[in-house]
Design brief:
The structure holds three protein chains of three kinds.
Chain A lengths: L11 H23 L10 H34 L15 H31 L7 E8 L2 E6 L33 E4 L1 E5 L4 E7 L4 E5 L4 E5 L5 E5 L5 E7 L12 E6 L2 H16 L2
Parallel strand pairs in A: 1-5, 4-10
Antiparallel strand pairs in A: 1-2, 2-3, 5-8, 6-7, 6-9, 9-10
Helix pairs in contact in A: 1-2, 2-3
Chain B lengths: L2 H8 L26 H27 L13 H24 L3 H31 L8 H32 L9 H25 L2
Helix pairs in contact in B: 2-5, 2-6, 3-4, 3-6, 4-5, 5-6
Chain C lengths: L19 H6 L4 H31 L6 H6 L12 H37 L7 H20 L30 H30 L12 H32 L11 E2 L2 E2 L9 H33 L6 H14 L15 H29 L8 H24 L1 H7 L3 H31 L1 E2 L2 H27 L19 H31 L1 E2 L61
Antiparallel strand pairs in C: 1-2, 3-4
Helix pairs in contact in C: 2-4, 2-5, 2-15, 4-5, 4-6, 4-7, 4-8, 4-13, 5-6, 6-7, 7-8, 7-9, 8-11, 8-13, 9-10, 10-11, 11-13, 11-14, 13-14, 14-15
Classes of the chains: A alpha+beta, B mainly alpha, C mainly alpha.
């Protein structure tokens, strides 16, 4: 038999597989480069950095994907056999392996650094003093929003005071509660101002997800978790629950409206306050 | 070089393969493994049991830090239980030295002692739980009590399993199935039983040092 | 050993002929047990697959009216024929649970592990044959228990296969959290016991019963993968059991391991207090991440060996393949937090887990390069098993690369709990191993049953499935990027998801096509057992490993009077100077000129 060096036979199966790989590559380029469906419109400041981390990973993995699937398709097409031919006994290349291994590791290290810069910034940057603070209390199957009102102080809440009309257990006897705003299912924030969301849950684990603002944080019973963002595109957006919380999980939709100006935001707050206090 | 030693060294009396079979770095060494099947299987079982207790105790360690933690008073009977368990292990060692001298009568006696003490431990554990219940400390009373019942309960279940194993060993002892040369079931069971001691000490310290 | 005094040869057992039940049902023969595992796992696959088709029906047409199904399952549908939301979630939960445990872990570790280990190491059976049989029957019991969870009054659990607490710890938190959940936990406990018995057997057998000359570095990669997987199972499953025990007590014993204070159900504060709400996730994923490697590692081993066989070429860099598997399994214990980046876990820990997670990508990449290196310069024989092992490589690449997005914590913020994750784990943990398993079934079928599966049907099965899986799972990446969350009964409820609903329709239609292709396989498999082309040689594929020394099908005792002696590694394909393009492991080492 021949020693196996050199190209094998091109077979129908090999060609068919190679063709499928080519089609796969074309379709993936269409989906991921032409992007007929893609991210929801970007609507926050930090979201741009999250998207750029995603895109960096996309470029790296995209190249790896195309190269590997193409090589796979090519080798399978090119190295068929008719039956009894010998292949090339070559099965070791320590230097090549070492290069590929360290190359892969280096690329991944770079990606780690890029991602961690954004991660650390997101979680470890202190929010400015003038941030709009909202307490978000998740429950099966809705979102409750609690604003501190003009005095900037949140009224005391106590879960023993929860009733069907006082879902967050606001203690009306507390002075600070007088001007608090409590809404169900809808929140407003002013554009271009930092927002701090303090997340809580009354029952099971939910997840506060703002797809357009690139915010996602689990709301965990027993924990109070802060997450912040700065919306920079006015409009009405949806809030989703991103952690399975029971049968009506799919219905746990909320709305977040980014008001184009602080004045709009303030008038919404005023309107909600009068609704609550009945003035 | 004798044929036998060639076979033992290279697994073959034929010359080594030509160099282009370079992928084969295995060599012709014999596949004898230094530990017996039973012993290895017991170590494997012990590893799995260790991981079970590791899971339970890591939960304990995490929850130890919550503000709602409340200590319970562990009944002092557990100290006596610990001694009973140790005694049962010591009895095994007497049995082991007896089997090494082919003294099967002594083997049977010491194994029986060990079994009785082991069973006594279980009974005494039930008494400890009874004492707790009488003091109003149930599974759900505090996190500490929950773990007390779960950890000691898991240990007791595994110990009970060990007692079932003892039945097998005793059967061998009573039908003259053990010699100084070959007393594999005793070795294997002793390993597991001593391991039960280790798990007990671990749980005991964890629960007491709350 | 032969003996002039007429003693029984080794391997011929001195027992009376076994009746039908002892021989084919309650057997302690590892081959029978392996086939029992395979067939049981296949049955579970049919159930799990059907559940997924029901899911796809709902996702493709969320407001659709399915009268035919509503008549069959009146409790799951409303009077207009719409699927109920809680039924949908129970489908999700049971599909995941059945597939991960009762199909993939069972078929790869239980099925192939049992059948192949003694054969490939030159032993007559496992170290503990009775324990082995017991492991199967307990596995079967666990299958029956999990199936019954589908039938109980309160419904099957609906917390996902991940069953997060406190939802799963509070029976009052919703439907399906009652008896169904208890059955779920019981099934998992039984499965863990079965798995432990199996793993004990595998490790002991591979370490202590290898035949003469079979050193560790001469083992086929299938054996290495099964050994490493067994060790992983040993270390990971008991932690799941610990979590399950604590969960049972939270549900029925009034304890509060996972239930913190301050929970309000039905407008009343409940009495539990003191638990840690993230504890379940930590325990579960400490098990859960090694579990995904428990599924993929045997698949890698099997696919590697089959690839080498049909490429007529040694696996590229065998040693590194072994080291990579060891590295992957070790690292698998320190990456679990990447499932919890947005869970409320400390962001610092999040950074640590990002680093370890991207580390584990390195040995996986090494293995991919080596598969490519195996095919480069090969002479591929395009049989069904060959095609499936080649398909495995493509699918592993696709599925593995999307993991990099998810391991990068900053990118994960947007991708967590979306269909991007669903795409990732299906490709890498379900479909790639499925292809490896199919390759294994076509490959070892003659060894199991003495007949060949139909090659034409096999090839159609491959091409249809390969196209089908990409059509089903590739678009899911885009769905996830577009924001579709997991476990959502009606995506159309969200306006921002409506424009991409066409993808859901495409996926659902493809899923039905893919399912139809699997029927081809089932028909082929079962009809070939009785009517397939008989195999008259020991080694129809001309492979090198020890099982091919035995007849097709292998008889009781596996090898003849003498156990085989191994003289070389498992990959002497196209060895230069050899007469044929393969040299079996048992072929003695002779000087070059004699070959």
């Amino acid at each position: 038999m021949a020693d196996g060096k050199g190209l094998g036979r091109i077979t129908t199966s090999g060609l068919a597989f190679g063709a499928l790989m080519a089609i796969l590559i074309v379709i993936s380029l269409w989906l991921f480069v032409a992007q007929p469906w893609w991210f929801p419109t970007l609507a926050s400041v930090h979201g741009a950095e999250i998207d750029s981390v995603f895109n960096a990973v996309l470029i790296v993995t995209g190249i790896a994907f195309v190269v590997t699937q193409a090589l796979l398709g090519y080798f399978v097409a090119r190295y068929g056999s008719a039956g009894n031919e010998k292949a090339d006994y070559w099965h070791d290349n320590p230097k090549g392996e070492f290069l590929l291994l360290t190359g892969t590791a280096l690329i991944l290290v770079v990606l780690v650094f890029m991602g961690q810069r954004v991660w650390i910034k997101y979680y470890f940057t202190k929010s400015p003093e003038d941030a709009v603070t909202v307490q978000v209390t998740a429950q099966q199957f809705m979102w409750n929003f609690h604003y501190p009102g003009a005095d900037g102080k949140f009224g005391r809440t106590d879960l023993r005071l929860v009733t069907p009309t006082n879902l967050i257990g606001l203690d009306e006897k507390d002075e600070a509660s007088k001007d608090d705003i409590v809404t169900a299912g809808e929140m407003h924030v002013p554009m271009n101002k930092p927002v701090v969301v303090r997340l809580r849950s009354k029952d099971v684990i939910h997840s506060f997800h703002l797809p357009f603002q690139r915010v996602k944080q689990d709301a965990v019973p027993g924990l109070a978790i802060e997450v912040s963002f700065t919306p920079n595109l006015a409009g009405a957006y949806e809030i989703a629950c991103a952690e399975l919380c029971g049968a009506q999980h799919y219905k746990m939709k909320g709305s977040i409206t980014v008001d184009p100006s602080e004045a709009d935001f303030d008038s919404w707050l005023k309107a909600k306050l009068s609704e609550r206090t009945g003035d | 070089m004798s044929v036998l030693s060639q076979i033992l060294r290279r697994g073959s009396i034929l010359p080594p393969p030509p160099t282009h079979h370079d992928g084969d770095s295995g060599g012709g060494s014999s596949s004898a493994f230094p530990i017996s099947k039973g012993y290895l299987a017991t170590w494997i079982l012990m590893t799995a049991v260790t991981m079970l207790f590791a899971g339970l105790s890591s939960a304990y360690i995490v929850l130890r830090g919550v503000p709602e933690w409340q200590n319970i008073t562990v009944p002092r009977l557990v100290w006596a239980n610990t001694l009973i368990l140790f005694a049962s292990s010591i009895a095994i060692e007497f049995a082991r030295s007896a089997v090494r001298k082919d003294q099967l009568d002594a083997v049977r006696q010491w194994l029986s002692v060990s079994g009785i003490l082991g069973f006594g431990f279980l009974v005494s554990q039930l008494l400890v739980w009874r004492q707790l219940v009488n003091a109003g400390v149930y599974l759900s009373t505090t996190i500490h009590s929950s773990f007390f019942y779960v950890l000691t309960g898991a240990h007791a279940l595994h110990l009970a399993g060990g007692l079932i194993g003892l039945v097998v060993v005793l059967r061998r002892a009573f039908t003259n199935g053990m010699t100084a040369r070959d007393h594999e079931p005793l070795r294997v069971w002793a390993l597991y039983w001593h391991f039960m001691d280790v798990i007990w000490i671990y749980c005991f310290l964890l629960l007491l040092l709350a | 050993m032969t003996d002039t005094h007429g003693h029984h040869h080794e391997g011929e057992h001195d027992h009376p002929k076994l009746g039908f039940w002892r021989k084919y049902v309650f057997s302690t023969d590892h081959k029978v047990i392996g086939i029992q595992y395979l067939i049981t796992a296949m049955s579970m696959a049919i159930i799990g697959g059907t559940l997924s088709l029901l899911m796809r029906l709902q996702l493709g047409w969320p407001h659709g009216s399915f009268r035919f199904l509503a008549n069959l399952m009146p409790k799951a549908f409303d009077s207009q024929g719409h699927m109920n939301a809680d039924f949908y979630l129970s489908l999700v939960t049971m599909h995941g649970t059945i597939m991960v445990f009762f199909l993939f872990t069972a078929v790869l570790t239980g099925g192939f592990g049992n059948f192949l280990i003694p054969l490939q190491i030159g032993a007559r059976d496992m170290a503990f044959p009775f324990l082995n049989a017991l492991s199967y029957w307990i596995f079967l019991a666990s299958c029956i228990v999990i199936f019954s969870a589908l039938l109980v009054e309160g419904g099957a659990p609906l917390g996902g296969w991940t069953s997060y607490a406190p939802l799963s710890a509070l029976p009052d938190a919703g439907p399906g959290q009652g008896t169904g959940m208890t059955l779920w936990i019981s099934a998992i406990a039984l499965f863990t016991a079965s798995g432990l018995m199996g793993g004990l057997n595998y490790i002991t057998t591979i370490l202590t019963m290898r035949t003469k000359g079979l050193s560790m570095m001469r083992l086929p990669l299938t054996q290495w993968s099964l050994l490493i997987t067994a060790v992983l199972g040993l270390l990971a499953f008991p932690v799941l059991l610990a979590a399950a025990i604590l969960l049972v007590f939270d549900r029925t014993g009034g304890t509060s391991f996972f239930i913190p204070g301050g929970i309000v159900l039905g407008n009343k504060l409940i009495e539990h207090t003191g638990g840690h709400p993230l504890l379940w996730q930590h325990l579960f994923w400490f098990f859960g991440h090694p579990e995904v490697y428990i599924v993929i590692l045997p698949a890698m081993g099997i696919a590697s060996d089959i690839l080498a066989t049909f490429c007529r070429k040694p696996i590229f860099s065998y040693k590194m393949m072994v080291y990579a598997m060891v590295a992957i399994s070790g690292l698998s214990f320190i990456v679990w937090g990447h499932h919890m980046f947005v869970s409320g876990m400390s962001p610092f820990l999040g950074s640590v887990f990002t680093i370890t997670t991207l580390l584990i990508a390195v040995p996986s990449a090494v293995k991919t390069f080596n598969w490519l290196g195996t095919i480069w310069g090969a002479r591929i024989r395009f049989t069904s098993p060959a095609l499936f092992s080649i398909g495995f490589v493509s699918l592993f690449v696709s599925g593995g690369l999307s993991g990099i997005f998810l391991g990068t914590s900053a990118a994960d913020i947007q991708m967590q709990d979306t269909y991007f994750v669903v795409a990732h784990f299906h490709l890498v943990m379900a479909i790639a191993p499925l292809f490896a398993a199919y390759g294994g079934l076509y490959f070892w079928f003659p060894k199991m049953f003495g007949r060949m599966m139909n090659e034409t049907l096999g090839k159609i099965h491959f091409w249809a499935s390969f196209v089908g899986v990409y059509c089903v799972f590739f678009p899911m990446h885009v769905l996830g990027i577009g924001g579709q969350m997991r476990r959502i009964y009606d995506p159309l409820n969200y306006e921002f998801l409506q424009p991409q609903q066409v993808l859901n329709v495409f996926i659902s239609v493809s899923a039905f096509f893919l399912a139809a292709a699997q029927i081809l396989f089932l028909v082929n498999f079962f009809s070939s057992i009785w009517a397939g082309k008989r195999v008259l040689v020991n080694n129809p594929w001309q492979a090198t490993t020890l099982e091919w020394e035995t007849p097709c099908p292998t008889g009781h005792g596996n090898f003849g009077p003498e156990l085989p002696v191994v003289h070389r590694w498992a990959f002497d394909y196209s060895a230069p100077g050899a007469k044929e393009d393969f040299v079996p492991q048992t072929a003695p080492a002779v000087p070059a000129r004699q070959l």
